[in-house]
Design brief:
- The protein has 197 residues and is mainly α.
- Helices cover 75% and strands 0% of the residues.
- It has six helices and no strands.
- It has helices at 10-39, 51-73, 76-89, 94-126, 136-159, 161-183.
- α3 packs antiparallel against α4 (94-126).
- It is globular, with a radius of gyration of 24 Å.
- The termini are far apart.
- 18% of the residues are buried.
């Protein structure tokens, strides 16, 4: 895929704002899941009281998280690419190395999400004609696909903030470089007259 997203462009700012919405929604979804899990599981063994109800609620968590990621999904690789380009221009430090690791985690999670989507489309295309949305034959493999995607979506929820941090550092460094260039003394002008001996 050709990446043409420019750092700081209107599209980049839009994609980052969509990521911010996902991060907020994913935290809400996870908090609701943690609350449900704590109330519907044994506090010592962590085993659910009702495995079927628990499984259905977990499927809802997975589906809701994937739905929330929908606004980021189609340009996740572009966001990661921009962050990698920005990191390459930053002064190396412990902080930038940590961000680089997080961005690599996002790159891997993105690749896996795209692979899970491709796998689901192949499974869906192989389903019998009778397997329609709402039928067990359709919903079970779909739920498995959501469950497989959830870990990678959670990686985005955990590490996605790094893209904002990298962007802020890159913008700060760019502004500082602009100020330095504006304050730098002008280069000496070449003499118009040439002295001949």
């Amino acid at each position: 895929m050709t990446i043409t997203l420019a750092p700081g462009s209107p599209a980049h700012r839009l994609y980052l704002s969509q990521l911010a919405i996902y991060l907020r929604h994913s935290r809400q979804i996870l908090a609701a899941w943690d609350h449900y899990s704590a109330r519907h599981s044994d506090p010592e063994t962590f085993q659910p009281y009702d495995e079927d109800a628990y499984g259905l609620r977990q499927q809802k968590r997975d589906a809701d998280t994937l739905s929330a990621f929908g606004r980021v999904y189609y340009h996740a690789d572009e966001l990661v690419d921009v962050a990698e380009r920005q990191l390459a221009l930053l002064t190396p430090s412990d902080r930038t190395r940590r961000y680089a690791w997080q961005v690599r985690e996002l790159r891997y999670a993105t690749q896996r999400l795209y692979a899970v989507q491709d796998d689901w489309l192949a499974v869906r295309d192989a389903l019998p004609a009778s397997a329609r949305p709402g039928t067990k034959a359709y919903e079970e493999p779909l739920a498995e696909s959501y469950a497989e995607a959830w870990h990678y979506l959670d990686q985005w929820a955990i590490h996605g903030q790094a893209l904002f941090a990298v962007n802020a550092l890159a913008e700060r460094q760019s502004r500082a470089a602009g100020r330095t260039a504006a304050v730098a003394p002008p280069a000496p002008a070449a003499d118009a007259a040439v002295v001949r001996r």
